[in-house]
Amino acid sequence: MDRDRIDVFLAHLEGIPDLDYEVEGIVDRITSLQRKFRRELEQTLAEHGLTWAEWKVLGSLWHAHHDVPHCSSPGELAAELELSSGAMTSRLDKLERAGLVRRRPDPEDRRGVKVELTEAGSRAWLESTNAQAIKEARVARALSKPEQVRLNALLRKLMLEFEESERLREGAAPDEPLGIRADAAA
Predict the structure, then answer these.
(1) What distance in Å separates the CA atoms of residue 5 and residue 178, rounded to the nearest whole number?
(2) Strand extents, DSSP E, 73-162
(3) Which of 39, 85, 106, 114 registers the highest number of CB atoms within 10 A of its CB?
(4) How many domains does the chain have?
């Protein structure tokens, strides 16, 4: 069997009484893969003139399905991305200067503003997302389709266990759903 750098690392952890090496291998590999995917995403975004923070705002607008598609209020975006209103304003200012979003009056609230994805913003989000999907598919090719399905099922089990633990820590009933956070796919 081939050894990766996590195997080498684990070999140096001998003598820790309560350490389960299989569990440690799972956690370390997931963490390492997450960092590698994130670095690759940031490189892809830089190639498309975006930062991760800007890409997240564009993605939130892409997925927004209110009265007007690809449109949301700054407050809704800030809540979804768990940002302060000041941080959201700063991101929107930069994206608007780049022509990727536009602010327009809210037709239902004279004092309100709506933010909409421009055609350029939509194109920037789609092109960068597609470019990253191609890179991710190259890595995933190390697994056959049945292995990918199995890995997804196993990772889903871990996610559900984490979600249940969070639910219980927050005092929610075991069958009460957790709120879905915007950063969960990142």
Answers:
(1) 35
(2) 101-106, 109-117
(3) 114
(4) 3
Report how far Cα 66 is from the mean position of its chain's Cα atoms.
Answer: 21
DSSP state of 142: T
Looking at the domain assignment, is residue 135 inside a domain? Answer: no
Residue 66 covered by a domain: yes
Per-residue pLDDT for 184 more than 50? no
pLDDT tens for 113-139 read 999 999 999 999 999 999 999 999 999
Euclidean distance between the first and the last CA atom of the chain, given in angstroms as a whole number? 31
Q: How far is CA 130 from CA 79, 96, 123, 145, in A?
A: 26, 23, 10, 20
Q: Are residues 26 and 61 in the same domain?
A: no
106 and 119 together in one domain:
yes
For residue 72, give the 3-state DSSP assignment. strand
| Calpha distance 103→94 (Å, rounded) | 12
**By residue range, what is the domain housing residue 178?**
144-186
**In a shared domain, residues 59 and 119:** yes
Q: Is 110 helix (H, G, I), strand (E, B) or coil?
A: strand
> Side chain identity at 155, as an amino acid letter?
L
Confidence of residue 166 (pLDDT cuts 50, 70, 90): confident
Q: What is the DSSP letter of 180?
A: P
Q: Is the pLDDT of residue 14 over 70?
A: yes
